[in-house]
Specification:
six-stranded mixed β-sheet, five-stranded antiparallel β-sheet, alpha/beta, single chain, elongated
Length: about 550
């Protein structure tokens, strides 16, 4: 006889598999601990005669099996243990530890405070709510005995340190429901939280595996060697490129593209052709428009060029403000010439040129995947990377590689994603331009979109966010509260302080938040006020 299939059980199969995987380590330990008792029970039963049961009908067998399954499931859930403070079952943590899967946003390159604890693990994948609801909820209603979001957040956001104008939004990432809003549709200066929008636009346009390539090309019959910039902001002339040495490092994603490696490979290719002297030129025509940001010459950003090494920094730093060279392309070409000379190739002083379509590529180096580049940009709030990604987004979208082209391309990409663009205005990719405007609604929508299971290519937007008390621009903040729990992008200009990111609350929910303040007078006090608000959100457990 054929037993009819139970559709509810088939529908529940994926959840049962996930539960089984999550609790397997704990059940294994429980089984080992119970093995002696089972053995004793078995020996006792062997000495007793067993009474044979009456034949069981098929329907009785099916019902009994279903009942046993429910009992077993209840036992499994009990064995899994309660939810811990981070909203994760202890058995799930045991399984993750058994599999030795490490996470976190420490990219091993820069932005981590010396002597700071190791970064916290990355957040678990986010699943949509069972009801798939995306509607707003009444923030004035709370479960019996629970707290209300507005009662917790409003007094903190009204702090005098946050100036006279502020906006805020909190959204449940799993369901997409807005849990709190205060002028969430008011467009304010976002400062560096603009980089969240730049990251989403670039990943959407180019994909997380895209790489930016710098090449050396030889013009046939002329002896002219041209260093062609591909807009890679991670190109470095330093001895260590952030990973293992050698030309394979950029290809494996372990380090940044090395100008030294490019020179060594180019010298080998020239030597094979019997060439030991060349006219050296450099090509920066990939980008157009003004190279200097509207804010003018500034330690926060080098002139934007399709060819630069170490972001034109002159003090050996890898992040943060630093003096910059006035012509990053010429600086990179001069260093390239020195590396060629060490490899036995003599060059003329480098000058600008444009590679023809007949130029033969001798060697190339490429950036890590765009996912890694985006993470570095967000963790360190890297303005140079942000402006490069804005231009790359523009070129992919058919716009010129300029400040204006990048701004238009970012806006167009976000509009295509269906994000709330009312009031939004872009003028750059970094947020240094005070004319940029974003809303708290848009910032939280960007974060929720990045957490959408259907858009895995956008996940670096979340994994790249600085971790409170551990990495990047939050490494020295939250040292006594919510460390490792808050992950957020900071934004600071004179009179402007913003914070947008994610937090796991006391109920285990992953929340996206955006707090924006204008008219602040003390940046330190404003940062402290924002940190207190995010910490309160983490411990809220509000309805």
């Amino acid at each position: 006889m054929v037993v009819p299939e139970l559709r509810p059980w088939r529908a529940a199969r994926p959840q049962v598999e996930r539960i089984a995987n999550a609790v397997r380590p704990r059940l294994a330990r429980a089984g080992a601990a119970a093995r002696p008792q089972v053995a004793r029970l078995t020996r006792a039963l062997r000495s007793r005669p067993l009474a044979l049961p009456r034949p069981v009908k098929t329907w009785q067998y099916t019902a009994g099996a279903a009942t046993a399954g429910l009992v077993l499931a209840a036992g499994v859930v009990t064995a899994a243990g309660p939810w811990d403070a981070n909203g994760q079952r202890t058995a799930e943590r045991d399984r993750a530890a058994a599999l030795e899967r490490t996470g976190g946003a420490d990219h091993g390159r820069s932005g981590t405070a010396v002597g700071a604890p190791r970064p916290a693990p990355s957040a678990e994948p986010v699943l949509m709510g069972l009801d798939g609801s995306t509607s707003a909820v009444d923030t004035k209603k709370a479960p019996p005995g629970g707290k209300v979001f507005s009662d917790v957040l409003k007094p903190l956001l009204d702090a005098s340190a946050l100036g006279g104008t502020h906006a805020a939004a909190v959204v449940d990432v799993a369901t997409g429901r807005r849990l709190y809003a205060a002028d969430a549709d008011k467009a304010l200066t976002p400062a560096s939280t603009t980089k969240i929008a730049t990251a989403v636009a670039a990943l959407s346009a180019l994909g997380p595996d895209h790489r930016l390539t710098t090449r050396a090309a030889l013009e046939p019959g002329t002896g002219e060697l041209i260093l062609v910039g591909g807009g890679d902001p991670t190109l470095t002339a330093r001895t260590q490129a952030g990973g293992t040495s050698g030309s394979s490092e950029a290809e494996s994603g372990e380090g940044w593209a090395s100008l030294r490696t490019l020179a060594a490979d180019t010298a080998k290719a020239l030597a094979k052709r019997g060439i030991h002297k060349v006219t050296l030129s450099y090509d920066t025509t990939l980008y157009s428009g003004p190279a200097v940001h509207p804010i003018g010459v500034n330690d926060n950003l080098a002139p934007v060029s399709a060819l630069s090494a170490d972001e034109g920094r002159t003090n050996g730093s890898t992040s943060g403000p630093a003096p910059r060279v006035s012509d990053p392309a010429k600086d990179a070409a001069s260093k390239f010439a020195a590396f060629l000379k060490n490899a036995g190739i003599t060059t003329t002083p480098p000058g600008p040129s444009k590679a023809s379509t007949l130029a033969q590529t001798l060697a190339t180096v490429s950036s890590p995947p765009l996912a890694d580049v985006v993470e570095r940009m967000l963790t360190n709030s890297d303005n140079d990377i942000a402006e490069a990604l804005a231009r790359q987004t523009a070129l992919t979208s058919g716009q010129p590689g300029s400040f204006d082209g990048g701004a238009r391309a970012i806006s167009a990409r976000l509009t295509k994603l269906g994000l709330p663009m009312s009031g939004a205005s872009f003028h750059d990719g970094s947020g240094l331009d005070r004319d940029d405007r974003l809303t708290a609604d848009l910032l939280t929508a960007l974060l929720v979109t990045a957490g959408d299971p259907g858009r895995p290519g956008l996940r670096p937007v979340l994994t790249g966010l600085p971790v409170a008390g551990f990495t990047g621009t939050l490494a020295d903040r939250y040292t006594d509260s919510a460390a490792g729990v808050v992950r957020a992008k900071t934004g600071t200009l004179t009179g402007v302080n913003t914070l947008a990111g994610t937090v796991v609350d006391a109920d285990g929910r992953l929340l996206a938040f955006a707090f924006m303040a204008s008219g602040t007078t003390d940046p330190v006090q404003a940062e402290s006020a924002l940190d207190k608000t995010a910490t309160a959100l983490a411990g809220c457990g509000c309805g």
